[in-house]
Design a protein that fits this description.
Blueprint: H1 15-23, E1 32-33, H2 38-47, H3 60-67, H4 74-78, E2 81-84, E3 90-95, E4 100-107, E5 110-117, E6 126-129, H5 135-146, E7 149-152, H6 154-164, E8 171-174, H7 178-186, H8 189-198, H9 200-222, E9 228-235, H10 242-262, E10 266-271, E11 289-291, H11 303-310, E12 315-317, E13 320-321, H12 331-345, E14 349-351, E15 353-354, H13 365-377
Parallel strand pairs: 1-14, 8-9, 9-10, 10-11, 11-12, 12-14, 13-15
Antiparallel strand pairs: 2-7, 3-4, 4-5, 5-6
Length: 383
């Protein structure tokens, strides 16, 4: 079926302009293709494995340019926003053995202890002990967040604009809200769930102070040139149950969206894993878009169920199951899915991979999707 998607000869695309026009509804019906390839790239980099031809020796931005597609520039521009802790906070690292490091976080109101393990298989650290595993450590986390400031780094912004500014509109992701912060940043899922029920006062005080800290960050965002703001939540219905979602996550998300939308920002949130039980509330969040909802056969929902949840108001960002870029599935599977996504969601669609192409994926399949998107966009006048 490759013959169905012959790439049209066209002038180079102004990706930053098209990206902004798509999300703000000014693209005249056109959509944009933004495959995220970081996992594919960094896994090979960590393993010391050379990239296959024709990508040997390329950087990740170079690969996007070679593929002729846009990039979602979160990590690049997130470095423009710096979290500044109270000057009295000190981090002391103590190696425990060849793999483990103890990190003692000293503050005027007490200490936190975290133990991290390096792995030979992955660049990410393993939490042997989380920095919050007692109510006393929760109070220290609250004090730290209460005394956190946020600053804008113009020099980093200028540097990233020179390096990758041709690939898409500058974008950033905010830290996680309340329950997701407990699960992913502070305690882990099991300990976080116990804390919600065993220390409700301490946890809810932390949630309130965390939201105030993020409100200060939003003031910095609003004063910056960044127009597209993602909430890096990793919402998964298997851990964020409906009652917790409605009690904590939904109201905080609504408050964030109201403030950012009033300032002309496009807001989206990262929902991955299983999302079916939470999709009925998608339009209540205030979000302009939801990223990385993963359809069957990888996730728990069909494309039609996603459409029912988002309606005609909320953008779908991504949508193609990552498994369709592996040889387990055929190119025909990928092509059919891409056409169906465009049929259901365009023009409120920033097409991408839910979640990322894996390290075993076939990067050349990104070209197939790009050809389909080019052919679809060709029917519209240049916006």
């Amino acid at each position: 079926m490759r013959d169905m998607t012959t790439r049209l000869a066209a002038a180079p695309v102004d990706w930053p302009t098209l990206h902004r026009k798509v999300v703000f509804g000014r693209a005249g019906g056109r959509i944009i293709w933004q495959p995220r390839i970081k996992c594919w790239f960094t896994d090979k980099q960590f393993a010391g494995e050379p990239l296959p031809a024709p990508y040997t020796g390329m950087t990740m931005p170079d690969i996007h340019r070679a593929l002729g597609c846009s990039a979602r520039l979160y990590s690049e521009f997130n470095r423009c926003f710096r979290r500044v802790e109270h000057p009295a906070v000190r981090l002391v690292e103590t190696p425990l053995n060849a793999w483990d490091t103890a990190v003692t976080i000293q503050t005027p109101v007490g200490e936190q202890l975290a133990i991290h393990r390096r792995s030979p298989n992955n660049a990410h650290l393993i939490h042997i002990k989380w920095e919050v595993e007692s109510e006393a450590e929760m109070r220290v986390a609250t004090w730290r967040e209460e005394h956190t400031a946020w600053v804008w780094d113009q020099a980093v912004f200028d540097e990233q604009m020179r390096a990758v500014g041709d690939l898409g509109a500058p974008t950033m992701f905010m830290p996680r809200m309340n329950v997701q912060s407990l699960y992913i940043e502070k305690m882990g899922i099991e300990k976080g769930i116990y804390a919600l029920y065993d220390w409700p006062d301490a946890v809810e005080t932390y949630f309130q102070v965390l939201e105030e800290s993020h409100d200060r960050l939003m003031d910095v965002i609003i004063a910056s040139p960044i127009e597209i703001v993602n909430f890096g939540e990793n919402v998964h219905a298997g851990t964020l149950a409906k009652d917790l979602f409605l009690k904590y996550h939904l109201p905080a998300c609504q408050r964030r969206c109201a403030k950012l939308r009033a300032a002309g920002r496009f807001t989206c949130s990262h929902w991955d894993g299983d999302t079916g039980p939470l999709l009925p509330y998608a339009r209540e969040t205030g979000l302009d878009g939801i990223e990385a909802i993963t359809p069957k056969p990888q996730g728990d929902v069909t494309l039609e169920q996603i459409k029912e949840g988002l309606g005609d108001d909320v953008f779908l960002i991504d949508g193609i199951p990552a498994v369709y870029f592996d040889n387990t599935f055929t190119e025909d599977d990928l092509i059919r899915c891409t056409h169906r996504l465009i049929e259901l969601f365009a023009p409120k669609l920033v097409l991408g991979i839910s979640d990322e192409i894996s390290s075993t994926g076939d990067l050349e399949r990104c070209r197939i999707v790009g050809q389909i998107v080019d052919a679809y966009n060709a029917q519209f006048d240049t916006p």
